[in-house]
Structures are given as C-alpha cells and as structure tokens.
Design brief:
homodimer, alpha/beta, Alpha/beta knot, Helicase, Ruva Protein, domain 3, 11 helices, 7 strands, elongated
Chain lengths: 257, 257
C-alpha cells in the first residue's frame, strides 16, 4: 500500500485484510455465490464457510458472477470456533431479537464499530451469518460481542442470506467512505451562469414573451416573478444559458418571416 | 390508518402507498422474485415491471419466498412512461456516473429525499432499476430527477439487480425509522408536475423548437438531452408547467400570423 494513500484507502485496505464474512451451515450454494458477489462489490474479500452443504458447486460459481476469485480463496472450516480464530470482534447477524443475548445494533452501528476498531487498533473482525431458515443457534450467538439486526418489516422479517450480507457489506463501505462526496454532482462541474447573465436572460425572456404575444406588457410582473423562481431553482450553467438565449432569439426572429 | 399512529408508522404507510419500484426489461425472473422479497422485507409493496422477459414465472415465485403477494399485485407495463404516470419524483439507479445527466446521490441521500417528499407533500415517487447487464439507457436516465449511485468497489461495480433493490429499500426503511422530521422543502408546497406531464412538455418543446427553426429535426437528441437535464433539475410545479406550455403554444401560433 502506497504511503500516499488517503485515509479512506487505508480503511478500505484494513477492511479487506481484517474483516471476514462467516457463513454457517449454508444450505444453498447459490447463496454462497451471491454473498461473494455482494462482498466483492463492496470491497470485501475474505469469505469463511463453516460446514457448507454444497461447496464448491456450479450454482455458487454462477451466482458469484465474476467474484469467483472470492470463492476460490474461501476458507472452509469444520466449526464456527475454527472460523473465528484470531478475531477480536465478533458480530452475529440475527433476524430475531433474543433475550439474554449480546447488545443489539443496527447494520450502520455495526459498521461504524467495525471500521473504528480495524482502523485504530488493527483488530480482526468477523461478521457471522447463520442458516437460511433458522439463523444462528443460541450457542453460536453466545460467541458474538454484538448482534447485528436489520430492522425489517415485522410481518415479514426473513431476508435472503446474500441480501443480508449485501446490507452489512454496504454499510461497511458507507462507513469507510464517510466524508465521501460524489464528485459528479451536476451542480459544480460546469461553471454556472452568473447573476448578470441571469438578468440579461430575464430581460431577453420578457421581450420575447411580449413579442410572441404571451405576456401582457402592461402587467408582466407576476408572470416574470414565477419564471424567475423556476429558472433560479434550476441554476443554469453558462452553456445552458447560451442555449436558452439561442431559443429566445430564434423565437423572436420568427416573427419577421 | 388509525389516528394514534406514530410519525414512523405514518411515514411507513406513505412509503407503502406512494413509492413504486420499477424494474425495466428484466431478463431473469429469479431477480424479479428476489427484488419482491427485498421490498417486502423493508415494507415496500408496489412493484412495476416494464416489459419483463419472463413473468409470471416459477423462478420468480421461488425466489420471492413468501413475498408472492407482491408479485401477484405487480403491474406489468409496456413502457417506462406508462410505469411513471403520476410520479412527481423519479430516481434512477445507475452504476455508472455519466456526463450530462441528473445530479448523483448515494442511496442514503435518495432515501432521505424520498421520505421527505412523500411525508410532507404526498408525492408519488418511483425508483427505477435498469437491465441486469446494461442498466438504464440515456433516454431512460433523461426521465430521472436524480441518479442513485451505490458507491461500489471501482474494480467490480455491478451489483446483482435484487441486491441493488435491497440496498435502496433498506435505506428507505432506515430513513423511515430514523424518527426523521423533514425540514421545510425548498421546493415549496405547490404540487409538482408529474412524469407524464413532463414527457408531454418535452414533446411540445421539441415540436416548438423545430417550428421556430432552432432545432435540427434530423439531430435533435443532444440538444433535447441538455434541455431535459435543465428542466428536470428545476422540477417544475404543475402551474409552472402550464405557463411553459402556454409559452410554447404562443411561440407556435406566432408562426401562422
């Protein structure tokens, strides 16, 4: 890793190196593949599989769709304990909120904690996901420092396994990028028209509307105020302003033909 | 809905009633089912399918896994325009960040905006997702007020379709539960023009620009795309839309005098 890496890049690197996604007793190979894809999309690569029913399997490869490198490097373990060796922070995903268990956090809180711990302390973290139909057992939950709970619709609370991995991995990425500003905001890349350009435009607009018979020259104010509000809200760029002026000129010229 | 509902319950109800998830040209029925499951988990129910390749289909039902009521009530449409009738806020999911397009927001920003708009103004919103391999076309993106971009790993950016739906639906749920109180909307309290009004306006604008000799009828696309970007950004109110249409009519009529 280059010494010129940004803080985000360093955190990203830490997550790649120190966060493992652990799937326990997964029934359907397709879910393993889809989980690998969700991980890689969000910049995670370390997959641990505890006693998977089918692995490797064609369904896993098909659903991984380009994340087959994550599958190829997956670690298959005989027990959850084996998968957790070296981990200082263990989070268990849980659809149900159980009594007498670890503190419950939503995925955003989990992600903030994981990012904070791997960044500042170099801690190895595991995010553990249970069986498709029954989740994690009480014994398995007993190995977790925190439970991660996705706040689902109470009437229909069971997420697909890979969808749950996607949500947690997404929150890890958002936490990594925090302070992230999308660069391609439509405002800002192009120079905006300045106030005096806008005023010339509004005068031109008013003249044109009079010319084409749309505006009552005796009482243009309310209409012009409405139009100002609309175009000010759009905050036109210089280029767009030139287009609008061109349209007005074309409409005016049309009168004399 | 009971009068004793909490603010969160009221927002949840608004989302259920006023947010539609629109899937365009989906190839794999399994993805439709998985998207329905992701929606229902997060409390969304209104699914619109624009020209799906396979629907209804056993793969959709299998992957829906209990969300088959969402599939059963899905609306199949012949075009994106049909799916957007009545929508005043259109968000398009996009993996790529394109030039000359709408402002880009991450899923959290999208969700905040949607929750704010449906809460305070009863606005109908659409979240539009494109094809598995190629996303939305430029024309389809031209119908969107904002692009929703999931900040993926740059080396592997293509999420599974249902995984993308899951992320946006999750953020909508998180925004609902945040106890979030919408601020006064900058757009004011007037009803905004809906997607079908906007399309009629763009057709009228194009005709008028041809009539007044501003637009090359042989190659109108780049100019029309620029104008779409400008007016989508302004998000005209119904009243403003009527004014703009009136201006166009006046300019057209002028020709015959």
């Amino acid at each position: 890793m280059s010494t010129t890496a940004t803080p985000q890049q360093r955190t990203q690197q830490r997550l790649q190196e120190n966060v493992r996604i652990v799937l326990v007793d997964t029934s359907h190979a397709g879910n393993i593949g889809a989980a690998a894809r969700a991980m890689k999309n969000m910049g995670l690569t370390r997959l641990y599989l505890v006693t998977p029913r089918q692995f490797p399997h064609a369904d896993a490869t098909a659903r991984a769709s380009g994340a087959d490198d994550v599958l190829a490097r997956a670690t298959v373990c005989a027990s959850l304990d084996e998968a957790l060796v070296g981990c200082r922070l263990v989070m268990g995903a849980s659809a149900r909120l159980r009594h007498l268990s670890a503190p419950v956090q939503d995925p955003r809180q989990c992600a903030t904690r994981i990012v904070s711990e791997v960044s500042t302390e170099g801690v190895e973290c595991a995010l553990v996901f249970g069986r498709e139909h029954s989740g994690l057992t009480n014994d398995e939950l007993g190995r977790c420092h925190f439970l991660g709970h996705i706040p689902t619709n109470a009437d229909y609370s069971s997420l697909n396994l890979a969808a749950a991995v996607q949500v947690f991995a997404y929150e890890l990425r958002m936490a990594t990028l925090a302070g992230y500003t999308p660069e391609t905001s439509a405002e800002g890349s192009e120079p905006l028209a300045c106030a005096d350009d806008m005023e010339r435009f509004y005068r031109h607009l008013q003249q044109t509307l009079e010319t084409i018979g749309f505006l009552d020259p005796a009482n243009p104010r309310i209409m012009m105020r409405r139009l100002r509000r609309l175009f000010n809200r759009a905050r036109p760029e210089e280029v767009e302003m030139n287009i609008l002026r061109g349209i007005l000129s074309a409409a005016q010229k049309h009168k004399t033909q």
